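S.,

As promised, the 6-hydroxymethylpterin-diphosphate run. Input:
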Amino acid sequence: MSTPFPSPASHFQCGRYSLSLARPLIMGVVNVTPDSFSDGGSFLAHESAIAHAQSLIEEGADILDIGGESTRPGAAAVALEEERRRVLPVVEALAACGVPVSIDTRKPELMREAIAAGASLVNDIGGAEGGGVLELIAASGAGVCLMHKQGEPQTMQQSPHYDDVVAEVRDYLAQRVDAAIKAGVASESIVIDPGFGFGKTYEHNLALLAHLGSFEALGVPVLAGLSRKGMLGRITGREPQARVYASVAAALFAAERGASILRVHDVAATRDALAVWWTLSGRMPVS
Ligand code: HH2
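Predicted complex:
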């Protein structure tokens, strides 16, 4: 690996926001979609998405993640025009909300438009592999979440295969961090994500979670997105909307293993659980 990785960051810089990593951060999910796996259709109208985002901030979200295309297993791709129609007005309305707005998209054009509309972070489940994406992010000063996936949402869960899932995902993310730094993205603006459920079996997800701590060796913060996901359904036997307690337990487990950002649907529950765990384990109380 050619780029020497920096030591773990003390803050995450996304656009004009500098977020302290002294405690785990909560990224609240806002799905402006008709078909997301756990809340599809609930926030498709712009007003309800904006109201939902504002209540997530009141509940303690440190970052808002706005998405207009479901990437659940089997999901069909959404055309740029439709994705733009769903999310851009929401990003614009939240640009001055006081917390960084993340745009969850794989489309470079929409990333550019969302940043112009006030987004401070690009969450690309495709690892920012698109042409010009890293350069766009570097020039804008936005943060980036580099996620691993195997295959495409439509077919990714059909037969995911790895010889060594932890090593392969870690090597991929190391390469993407390297590429981002070479493109001019500041290391303190990069987070990585193993991509739970994205071309991974239940066993792959468990292995990645068990070894999450080893991702810290890449020198950038780790984001974990476990909220309401299928592995929690398999453990508890519950439907997505009834996986709140399971999601909170998984978020705490990920935080314990070093995750710096937790991408969750249930912000209030996660925040309270984190605050209790954080305080009882002898750290500074969460403000
Ligand atoms: N998971 C989902 C979407 N985006 N981004 C990152 N970085 N990490 C994740 O684990 C992740 C993500 C899937 O969750 P959700 O957005 O609720 O569902 P859907 O894709 O059906 O909209």
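The CA atoms of residues 252 and 277 lie 8 Å apart. The longest strand covers residues 25-31.

- D.
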